[in-house]
Structures are given as structure tokens and as C-alpha cells.
Amino acid sequence: MASRRVRLKDIAARAGVSAMTVSRVLNQHAHVSEVVRARVLQLVKEYDYQPNFIARSLVSRRSRTVGFLVPAINLSYFFEIIRGIETVFGRNGYHLILGHTGEDAARERAELGVLRSRQVDGLIIAPALNVNDIEPYLALQKLELPAVFVDRCFPGLECSYVYSNDQAGGRLVGELLLRLGHRRIAFLAAALRDPEYCRMKSCRDFLEAAGVKTDRRLVRLAGVTRADGYREAGHLLGLAAPPTAVFAHNDEVAIGVYQRAREMKIRIPGDLTVIGYGNLHWSGYVDPPLTTVDQKPFGIGSEAARVLLERIEKRGTRPTRILVEPELITRGSHAACQPRR
Fold first, then answer.
1. What is the three-class DSSP state of 273?
2. Which residue in 57, 120, 222, 229 is deepest, having the highest Cβ count within 10 Å?
């Protein structure tokens, strides 16, 4: 039996039971005696039996796979979401397939087609920033393919959605900056679309309601990387009247600001307060440790996986919206505003 691929019926023959009984053992069915279960599992281990998932999916009409369309796999934020997704699905016998879109709408459409061709049981989608056409997502609904959106979504699209409360997160930053006495505050946003823009707008709205007016020259549309933060910081810190504080829409961009400020001999936080967003795993280990907002990305991923699992196993579940509350993490990159020297 070891000279060829071991089949389920081979295990059944050696165990002296039916193929159905072996299948029940592998699927952790309750109605199997412990003696038979132990004998089957011993043979599975002895012969390194690997179930034929293609054959099983034809019978069960499930592939036991789910897809995740991720726009930037190199960002720690999305890596933490992936960890949350895998934790839930791994415990439930599902495998995760990633489709990396690189923040590109055309590539996202192509990756969506690939995942559909793989017959995934469901999808978790973090749309690319430049996606404006929701037709591919509407097609998923027509196919009754369960899908959950994370981080970004679209007005008018009836979908399950798990996201961080960026409005509350932006307000937390605004409250801190107001207490510190900052008035010239720069905002580095990603795009004129939720959620990155939402957290910036919330912060600005709070400050303006408190009497702190926004200088539009200090509002910049940046990208999502350290290089983007570095570039925009060079512009802002070179102004005749530079900002005393910078609020970056993510931690990666904030670290780019760190690098440029250091080159320009600008002290953080003595001369410049820098606040990030995301609380990535390394943000407490930079110098100085970064003050930021924890979006709970692992929690976003695990909640999205839980919602999708419910939709896969209970068809017809109505769209669900779950709001994950953020937390302000105060460290060493903020200080009270100092008079200009």
C-alpha cells in the first residue's frame, strides 16, 4: 500500500470498517466508537494518509477554502488581519488563499476571478483604494457567494462589513492634540475615501469645533508607505511656518516622518509631535516610541472570519455590520507645544 497513493478505501480495508466510517472519523463525527476511532487514526498516521479535498468537495459541495483579497500584503496592518482570519478558520478546518491586489483595481478584478475559479466557499475583501466600480461585488451577491468586507466598503453596497471606528479614533487624536496646545497641525491622509480620510476629517472637525482652524496647506494626500511619509515631511517641515504636530493616517507613514525629521535635525517630540495610526507590532520599539491609535487589526480579522463562517454555514444570513472600537496608545512621540525659538 505504501508504493502508491493511499486512498480512503485502503484505510477502511485495513481497519476492517466501511469507507463511510473512516470519513466520519476524519470529519470528527460523534457517532463512532472510541476503539474504531483510535484504530483508524493510527492507520492514517502510519500511512501518512492525505484526504483528497477535490473529491470531498464534489460530495460536500464545499472546498473548505476561503479567499482574502488584500491590497498591501507588505503592511503590518494587513498582516495582523491575516493572522486573525487564519486563527478562526484554522480552528474550523478551513484553508486561506490570499489574492494580493497591490492597491490596483484591475488586478483586484483579476484576483477575484482567480479565487472564484478556485471554488472558495467565501471571501473576505479589503478593496483597493482606487476601486470605484462595485459591479464585481454585486456579481458575488447574485452568485450567493458569501463575502465580508474589512477596512473599506462602498456606500449603497449591501454587505457584511467589519471595520474600526475611525471617527472615534480621529477624535481621540484631536483631544490629545488640543490638550497639548498644538495649533499648527499637519494631516497626512491616504485618499478622499473612508477609512483613512474619515479619521483625518473626524480629528479636524473636532479641533475646528474647539476653535483650532485647519491650515489647508498642511493637509496632504500621502500614500501608505514610509517613503510617502518621508516625502511629505520634507515638504511640510521645509515651510516658513512648519507644523508643530503631524497626524499620519498610519504608522508606516509616521515613521517616514521620523526619518525626514531626523535628517533635518528636528527633535521628536521636542520640536515636533508625531502621531500615527494602527499600533503596529514594532511601533513601541522605535525611537522615540510612537504614540498611535490601536485599530485592533487582529480583532478585525477574527471578527470578519467569524461572520463569514456563519454565512458559509447558515446561508441567507442578513448583512452584518461590526464596529471595532479603537484605543489611543500614548508613548513618547508627543509633547506640549513649545514656543518657536
1. strand
2. 229
Identify the segments of the chain with pLDDT beneath 50.
1-2, 58
3-state secondary structure of 330: coil
Instruction: Please name the residues in contact with 133: beta carbons below 8 A apart, sequence gap of 6 or more.
Output: 105
Cell of 318: 442578513
Cis peptide before 242 (omega within 30 of 0): no
Q: What is the CA radius of gyration of the chain?
A: 25
Give residue 285's pLDDT: 96
8 A C-beta contact, residue 82 and residue 64: no
Return the axis-axis angle of helices 8-15 and 34-46, rounded to nearest 10°.
130
Residue 162 main-chain phi, psi, to 5 deg: -120, 125
Q: Alpha-carbon torsion 249, 251, 253, 254, what sign? A: positive
pLDDT of residue 318: 78
* Sequence-separated (6 or more) residues with CB below 8 Å from residue 127: 69, 71, 108, 149, 152, 153, 154
Domains and CATH numbers, the chain: 8-51 (1.10.260.40), 65-164+297-325 (3.40.50.2300), 166-295 (3.40.50.2300)
Q: Which helix (H) or strand (E) element contains residue 85?
A: helix 76-91
- Residue pair 222/162 in contact (Cβ under 8 Å)? The answer is no
How far is it, in rounded angstroms, from Cα 324 to Cα 2? 51
Q: Is 245 left (phi over 0), alpha (psi -120 to 50) or beta?
A: beta
Q: What is the DSSP letter of 115?
A: H
Which helix (H) or strand (E) segment holds residue 247: the answer is: strand 245-248
pLDDT the model gives residue 77: 85
The residue type at 292: T
- Please, is 243 exposed, middle or buried when counting C-beta atoms within 10 Å of its C-beta (0-12, 13-18, 19+)? buried
Give yes or no for a contact between 231 and 203, defined as CB atoms under 8 angstroms apart.
no
In DSSP terms, which residues pair with 248 in a beta bridge?
188
Q: Residue 154 region, left (φ>0) first, then alpha (ψ -120 to 50), else beta?
A: beta
Tell me the sheet residues that pair with 188.
Answer: 220, 248
The DSSP letter of residue 119 is T
